[in-house]
Amino acid sequence: MLSKSPATMETILRNSAASVMFLVVYVTCSIMVIGEAQGDTKVPLSPPTNSNPEKEAVQEQRTKSVSDKYKEEHERLLISVLNQDSTSAMRPHFGGNAVNVTCSMTIDGLADLSERTMDYSLSLSLFLEWSDNRLTHNSTEEITFHKEETIKKAWLPDIYFVNEKNGIIHHIISENNALAVYPDGSILYSLRLTLTLSCFMDLNYFPMDRQHCPLEIRSYAYNDNNLVLSWRKKKNKRDPDALDYNKQIQMPQFKLTNITATEDLFPLRMGNFTTLRARFTLERVMGFYIVHTFLPSFLLVVVSWITFWLHVEATAARASLGITTVLTVTTQISSSRFTLPEVSYPTALDVWFSGCLVFVFSALLEFALVNYVHLMDGRAPTMRRSGTSMTYTVSGELSEMDVYRSCQNDNHSSQTQLNKRTRESNSCDDQPNHIQHYPHYVDFDRRPVRPYAKYAKKIDKFCRVLFPFLFLICNIIFWLAYLY
Asked: How much is the mean pLDDT over the chain?
């Protein structure tokens, strides 16, 4: 066997490596092409259903039959039933039992609660349900009427809102009312309206008050022998309440805390009429009044106490401070009454402002008292030492006291000077009686130092503690009385 040369072996290995590389590239490209082909292939999500022409024809025929029946019954109710005058003029079951009308509503908005006009605005969707056997039909679905002219041809409950001031039925974009007639003669009448209702408020606790605004519904012509109103009862947990409301309702000064529904009979000359009442409990939010009313007036009272720390002789500063605080509180009282009616009883806000006015006015009176006591030193007698003797002087009588001193002190003045002064101001023996009784003061060793000024300072120090303490006690009583 012939041995191969190294060059031949190298050539064989090189050819083998090239063959392996070509095989790897070929396999890789084949895998990529297969993957793309599988990605482009659309796999059906579900197997195609076998079409059944017979079933489709039956379904189409059934739909056409329902539609034709709906149109037929719709035209029959319009032509044969609603066009009769007796349909709208006579109540259902005339001569028999009273018509039971159930009521429910959805509160869409509540706003414009005004203390001055004693009313509020309410947007709602009203739903009335009753039965009228004259409107039974053979359609499998309810027949709905939207036109107001058509709806008026049917009998409708003659209800009205007892405490209504003004109201509108919405017509944007179309008339917001509908009359749905079910096959068994049950009727659902719905409409959307906005009302302005009166609400008589008790403002004794204003602005910490809680108002109860009513909504009353009553029949105008039918007493309880012909028509009975009642709130709709819930049939299951998912069924909405008779008084449902939008949870997103927000008002600037109030929050809706509760809604209650009641029924009762109201006696009138034509008999007893069933009345539905809804009561909205509104609690006032005090944030506005705390920031704009209570806090400024509280600070004004505190500012009025600064006069107790001013010097007794700073009369200009103390007087201007006291008068300014009194006038500012008076202005606040006047401005707070603009939004309120002229009630004959005091509100909580009136009590607060009255207390603040009493405190600032008392601070002004305290200044007047302290100033008067301080001025008493100018009128009160004082002692003045001259050499070894004491002279008792009174404002406006210094010349008389000097004469008395000349008469008593022979060691310090000559007889000539004494005679001269006594000739000018009468003799010593002829001095007034109040001068004759002064000699016992001459032996005093102590001199009084403005005693009334000390009293004035004591009054200021006492008021620095008394006024804040009394104001704190009044605040505790006020907030406990009106908040709880």
From this structure: 79
Segment 437-465 mean pLDDT: 67
Q: 198-202, 358-362, 386-390: which has the minimum mean pLDDT? A: 386-390
As a whole number, mean pLDDT of residues 72-97 equals 75
DSSP letter string, 2-21 = PPPPHHHHHHHHHHHHHHHH
71-96 mean pLDDT: 75
Rounded to an integer, what distance in angstroms lies between the CA atom of residue 265 and that of residue 334? 45
> Does an H or E element contain 382, and which?
strand 382-386
Mean per-residue pLDDT, 136-164: 89
Q: Tell me which amino acid residue 212 is.
A: H
Spatial contact of 92 and 131, defined as CB atoms under 8 Å apart: yes
Helix (H) or strand (E) holding 364: helix 348-379
Residue-wise DSSP of 62-98: HHHHHHHHHHHHHHHIIIIITTSHHHHHS-TTTTSSP
Rg (CA), the chain: 51
Note the pTM of the prediction, 2 decimals: 0.68
In angstroms, the CA 374 to CA 318 distance is 14
Q: Please, are residues 428 and 400 in contact by the beta-carbon 8 Å criterion?
A: no
